[in-house]
Amino acid sequence: MKDVNPALRAVPPPESGSSSAYQRGDSRGDAPVLEKMLGRAKPDEHLVSLLTPATFEAEQYRTLGLMLEQRRQTGLLQVVAMTSPTMGDGKTLTAINLAGAVSQSPSARVLLMDVDFRKPSIAAQLGLRDNIVGLRDAALNAGLRLKDVVRRHPAWNLSIATAGRAQGLPHEIIKSARFAELLNEARRDYEWIFLDTPPLMLAPDCLILGRNVDGFLMVVYANKTSRQEVAEALNSLGPSKLLGLVYNGDDRLLSSYNYGAYYMTPESG
């Protein structure tokens, strides 16, 4: 993986019971507030950037956000896709936490999009109903614009576009001109756009998305994702738009810390 630049290392999210109570916050913003779309379930307790933003764990996601800011100074970087070689590597939690970290500033305009149409999970992780109008609906209905399917969370400064209710072949939706138009709308309205996408080895969607996004972060899980799977995923994606790796689950990185949390270090090469 010497050609990956930079590599970002991380360990798992905090253990159960570390998050604070779910709090209601400011609901300002152009996008409608999705209060009526809140489900009975609370957000996943591992969403530390949103639930416990003052913790060491959340700080590591802000570090990742700052690294992306630095990368943006050298070229266009606005639409960032999160992927992984296989399922269960933590890409969705990483996407939500990164979006949450970048959205901490009151003036930030951040959009989180669920583009994993085969197995969408952002709504569930955030405690939202999963039967709301979303990206698939807008992609298959020219009468819907992006603003019609984006909702602002009532508790945080974060806009969200869920996968949606409409059915269609995921790769056909993603390669459509209409989907590209929706991403262009997002570029005009938001400072940062984070996409949760399918695993690289299970679907061709990321390869199609490559022409519409500015870069990919790949999440891999220690002692789960094999070297061969990582190598195949890297070869499939190619180096041109790979921003780096987020390496999850290596407990050895906790040896000098008393936090059961998330830690990242840049590694050049």
UniProtKB/TrEMBL annotation:
Keywords: ATP-binding, Kinase, Nucleotide-binding, Transferase, Tyrosine-protein kinase. Residues 79-200 form the AAA domain. InterPro entries: AAA_dom, Bact_polysacc_biosynth/exp, P-loop_NTPase, Wzc-like_C. Gene3D superfamilies: P-loop containing nucleotide triphosphate hydrolases. Residues 1-29 are annotated as: Disordered. GO terms for molecular function: non-membrane spanning protein tyrosine kinase activity. Pfam families: AAA_31. Its EC number is 2.7.10.2. It comes from the Bacteria. This is Putative Tyrosine-protein kinase. It comes from Nitrospira moscoviensis.
